[in-house]
Amino acid sequence: MKIIVLGGGMVGRVMAHDLSADFNITCADFSTEVLKQLNSRYGLKTLACDFSKADEIRKAVKDFDLVIGAVPGRLGFNMLKTVIEEGKNIVDISFFPEDAFLLNELAVKNNVTAMVDCGVAPGYCNMMAGYYYARMRMDFYSCLVGGLPVNRIPPFEYKAPFSPADVIEEYVRPARMKVNGNIIVKDALSEIELLGFSECGTLEAFNTDGLRSLLVTMPDVKTLKEKTLRYPGHAALMKIFRDSGFFSQEKIQTSDGQVAPLRVTSKLLFDQWKYKEGEEDFTIMQVMIRGEQDGIKKEFSCTMFDRYHKPTATMSMARTTGYTCTAAARLLIEKKFNRKGICPPEYVGENEACFKFVTDYLLKKEISIRFDEKTF
Questions:
Q1: How deeply is 17 buried, as exposed, middle or buried, from its count of CB atoms within 10 A (0-12, 13-18, 19+)?
Q2: Domain 2-116 indexed as CATH 3.40.50.300
Q3: What is the CATH number of domain 124-316+370-375?
Q4: 8, 60, 197, 348: which one has the fewest Cβ atoms less than 10 Å from its Cβ?
Q5: What 8-state DSSP symbol labels residue 160?
């Protein structure tokens, strides 16, 4: 089995290394420096590829049996389209803003399984939603999720495990949710609330557009909500940046020419938000589901918590995102999941054996997952 991982960033390299224990792995990236690190640190075979060019992607994936997608969000949709056109199965974590289902007909036509959004959130939380949706009359779903540095450094008290532009996109794009059976839209960073967690103390939660495919695949669930978790005060600071125009992609005229404020902001924030070597982080996610099962009203909850893994010097966000993806890839490889077309993670979770496989895989990686059940 020959597998190519498109993207050798923080998560891409962890996925490539994880799969390399059992398969023939090549990792592709645009950065020469990244390719050198992949080879020297992990001993991986590498390939230079500009993901903005379809011809280079086609050439890169041509001789491989499976593709793992881990490219920046702005390049994700076109990358996915190109891979599907080449007739290659893919498991993807690229968080692109476009609707993946627009490629469903193409994927079915080319007999391709395209598992999208296969990270932690979206990703594992969707699998949980899919599992219970198939087994009960669900009427409520909520997900709270965040990845944060252990050490709080003002003024942001935040570090980005990936491109600042992808994080900022979450702070700009209107948040869709479902309330009382109706899809409504609210501002990102709105409805801030403080919540206490035994694992990491008090965090703030605010609206972001993270429900993704659940708004389509679970039409009869009355309430669907998702919020991002940060240290208290972060959302208010980001709202100042956003409302002042620093996150705008519309070019403005300066004495030196035209420039998009977001490009400048991302450049300035990159060094401040970048994790330093050995800097520790944690991931916290809490999913709550309510509904009726066998005539009994029940509430199911799942809390995932993980910290920087010192023995392997692996960041928590890379672990929780990457290992969910590699577990999904193994389902494909072992032919335990064979559905064709665009397949969001909830389609995986519908199958009990698949959901258990992914959960057990994460537990074996020492990621804490706790399930609770209440009856009313």
A1: buried
A2: no
A3: 3.30.360.10
A4: 197
A5: B
| Whole-model pTM over 0.85 | yes
Residue 152 has pLDDT above 90, yes or no: yes
Residues 6+ apart with CB under 8 A from 109: none
State CA 260 to chain mean position distance.
26
How many angstroms separate the CA atoms of 371 and 123, rounded?
17
Query: How far, in Å, CA of 297 to CA of 97, rounded?
Result: 35
Q: Which two tokens stand for residue 70?
A: 């881990």
Q: Tokens 């020959």 correspond to what residue?
A: 2
Whole-number Å distance between alpha carbons of 309 and 315: 6
Six token digits for residue 47: 């390939």
Same fold, 2-116 and 124-316+370-375: no
* Structure confidence by residue, pLDDT tens digits, 181-231: 999 999 999 999 999 999 999 999 999 999 999 999 999 999 999 999 999
User: CB count, 10 Å around CB of 195?
Assistant: 14
Residue 34's pLDDT is 92
Q: For tokens 């702005």, what's the residue?
A: 74
Residues 319-337, mean pLDDT to the nearest whole number:
97
Domain boundary assignment for the chain: 2-116, 124-316+370-375
**Cβ atoms 285, 182 nearer than 8 A:** no
Q: Is the pLDDT of residue 163 over 80?
A: no
